[in-house]
Amino acid sequence: MNVLIVDDEPLARARLKRLLAENHTSIHVQGEAGNGNDALMKIEELQPDLVFLDIDMPGLNGIEVANQLNDLAVPPAIIFITAHPEHALDAMQLNAAGYLVKPISEKSLQHALQQLGRLNRVHLQQQQTEKVTYQLAGTVRSIKIESIFYFYAQEKYTKVVFDGGEALIEDSLKQLEMQYPRHLLRIHRNTLVNKNKILALHTLKNHQHVIELKGCTPFLAVSRRALKSVKSVL
User: Fold this and answer.
1) Distance, first Cα to last Cα, the chain
2) Residue of 43, 88, 142, 212 with fewest CB within 10 Å of its CB?
3) What is the largest CA-CA distance in the chain?
4) What CA–CA distance (Å, rounded) separates 25 from 19?
5) How many CB atoms lie within 10 A of CB 65?
6) 71-74, Cβ contacts within 8 angstroms, sequence gap of 24 or more
7) pLDDT on residue 117
């Protein structure tokens, strides 16, 4: 596992690096950053699997960095670090993989990494059986997520367009987005697409952006808000 350590205190970075080197040989520290802006540049450059992220930094703090990372198509896992336990709620609301209070002990570090490992195994198990179910003429059917082109919100229902047809389901786009984060990307407030089906991003004469999907005829509109995420996936 490749990791990046982000903390404005050099001694804190050195302590964590030593704990990882002494007791967790499967973890490789790719680099370090002393502030939020440097962290974002290093993450873009190194693409780490996990970021140990200090919350209390001058300038761009850890919470602000995490907010920006959550906009990425495939963000790294985050374990927050702080000397102030009252920040725990803010950290957990950002779907952090763990939370460490300074001074970090080997026991607390071990626990955080074990929790991260459990989450990864659960996610892998889910990914092996990811299917979307729908009803047709009273019969429950399923579609493998890999066969789906896109989801489109239609009044009270969501239309799912897949290789071989389309169907209506009751799941909202938000529910689908949370359930299949590895596969789906929001390109508009009413549209989710399968990341693996994205072929190209086109700019029309009116400066509107649309996505072309492999094996799917209609181009789909991309909102300005989602443009950065789409480019990141491409």
Assistant:
1) 24
2) 142
3) 65
4) 10
5) 25
6) 71/228, 71/229, 72/229, 72/232, 73/185, 73/195, 73/229, 73/232, 73/233, 74/182
7) 67
